[in-house]
Amino acid sequence: MSNSTSHPLDDPAVDPFEVAQAAANDIARLSGVEHHDIAVTLGSGWGRAAELIGEETASFPATEVVGFSKPALEGHAGTLRSVRTPGGKNVLVIGARTHYYEGHGVRRVVHSVRTAAATGARTMILTNGAGGIRETWKPGQPVLISDHINLTADSPLEGATFIDLTDLYSKRLRDIAREIDPTLDEGVYTQFRGPHYETPAEVQMAKAIGGHIVGMSTSLEAIAARQAGMEILGFSLITNLAAGIQKTPLSHEEVLEAGREAEPVISALLARVVHAL
Ligand code: 8IG
User: Fold this and answer.
1) pLDDT at residue 77, as a whole number
2) How far apart are CA 183 and CA 266, in angstroms?
3) 42, 151, 198: residue to mutate for ligand 1 pocket, most atoms within 8 A of CB
4) Which pLDDT band, with edges at 50, 70 and 90, does 71 fall under?
5) Is 187 in the pocket of ligand 1 (CB under 6 A)?
6) What is the mean pLDDT of the chain?
């Protein structure tokens, strides 16, 4: 690197998969765990899940791992953990997400997913906090992601890399989650760039094209996870109803509050799902 502000993933000549492999080597060294089986990205509201998934083997700031960027947002821990389940599986818990709206490019957005794959994880669980379009949904309710609509007009794939996205969010894994909580509803996640929330008209557009959830992450990560050959499970915590669906203005504080309240329940759900894999 030429100076302290340069980032390896910003250099087009650098292969992002080589950076991911180097990051996986960092994680093996820092955690003492050579191979992870499952990776979980914790979004807003899901932060307590790590301690319920199992015993913590190691915990370190994501910034100690090559390619990870500084956390942009309060409520996003910026910590990577290696956790061992009661069944003996090693879970990489990623509490550090780089969002597309930060403007650092899609390579940085999906670096955590590519790194997770390079640690050996074959299952990628992506969680987020999001807005709900379905009027029957309540803030604090977790829902499964059944499919997505990527409205960023961007892709983590470079060049003529054609990847099938049928059943991107694994039916098999959704069925396992519903065995644990039969009340889980599901919906289509619609990714906007953000960081502004949608206008009511944009929410109506998302609804008209088949969306049920609005968010600012996950779709690009899911595509990268599929490219890496992982099986994907997606969860959204509905922290608010989308603009115009709820009659009051949206606030980031409200989103954090809904996350705090739901956290014990959804973290326990997530841990039970991990244990069932
Ligand atoms: I938390 O209403 C959360 N994230 N795009 N819209 C979008 N992202 C979100 C929302 C929302 N709530």
Assistant:
1) 47
2) 13
3) 198
4) low
5) no
6) 93
Q: How far is the CA of 242 from the centre of ligand 1 (A)?
A: 7
Provide the token pair at 115: 């790194």
The CATH number that applies at residue 248 is 3.40.50.1580
Assigned domain for 183 exists: yes
CA 192 to ligand 1: nearest atom: 5
Q: What are phi and psi of 5, to 5 degrees?
A: -95, -10
Q: For a pocket test of ligand 1, which of 145, 214, 253 has the largest count of ligand atoms closer than 8 A to its C-beta?
A: 214
Say how many Å lie between the CA of residue 107 and the centre of ligand 1.
22
Residue 78 lies in a domain: yes
Quick check: CB of 151 below 6 Å from ligand 1? no
| Chain segment 198-239, per-residue pLDDT in tens | 999 999 999 999 999 999 999 999 999 999 999 999 999 999
Q: Which domain holds residue 239?
A: 8-276
Question: Is 130 close to ligand 1, i.e. is its CB under 6 Å away?
Answer: yes
Residue 3 belongs to some domain of the structure: no
**What was the pLDDT predicted at 74?**
55
The total number of structural domains that make up the chain: 1
241 lies in a domain? Answer: yes
